[in-house]
Write a structure and sequence with these properties.
alpha+beta; about 160 residues; single chain; five-stranded antiparallel beta sheet; 2 domains
Length: about 160
């Protein structure tokens, strides 16, 4: 059987469109490795006992060749013993760099969106300089344990 010219043209156009869509879709899929985390999100997380009102605020996400996605967070509502703080307690950690999967294992749900981000640029810049030199790292433990480490660091007796 012989197909008429217009039917062949329609089939050719459909095949061309399918190929074009297939070619266009493949690179887009490779570029859409989005994070579940976005700046300004406020998350509940598995807190230390007594800090159930504490929250994690997403500050920034870096995509690193070796480390993968690094999610920079601000933790508010903690009660870190700190002899140098007014009242002996620090209630915020302005910047903590986290491996995306470690943070994902610590958070529970997005609670809200912050109207603006807390000031974290100084802490981020300090971390970034050290990280780029291979002298700084990222947290790969639960956030509650990271808060413990920060408390221990603040209270260690150093000369």
């Amino acid at each position: 059987m012989r197909e008429d010219k217009s039917a062949m043209q329609v089939k050719s156009m459909l095949l061309a469109m399918t190929l074009l869509i297939g070619c266009a879709a493949e690179p887009l899929l490779k570029k859409t490795q989005m994070s579940q985390f976005q700046p300004k999100q406020v998350w509940t997380y598995k807190t230390r006992p007594g800090e159930e009102a504490s929250r994690v605020v997403i500050l920034k996400i870096d995509d690193h060749d070796q480390a993968g996605k690094i999610v920079h967070i601000h933790v508010r509502g903690v009660a870190i013993q700190n002899q140098q703080a007014s009242g002996g307690v620090t209630t915020v950690i302005s910047h903590m760099p986290y491996a995306e999967n470690a943070l994902a294992n610590s958070v529970i749900a997005v609670e809200s969106e912050a109207e603006s981000l807390p000031d974290f640029q100084k802490g981020y810049a300090t971390w970034k300089r050290a990280f780029d030199k291979g002298e700084g790292g990222i947290f790969t433990i639960p956030v509650a344990e990271g808060v413990d480490i920060m408390q221990n660091a603040l209270n260690s007796s150093s000369p």
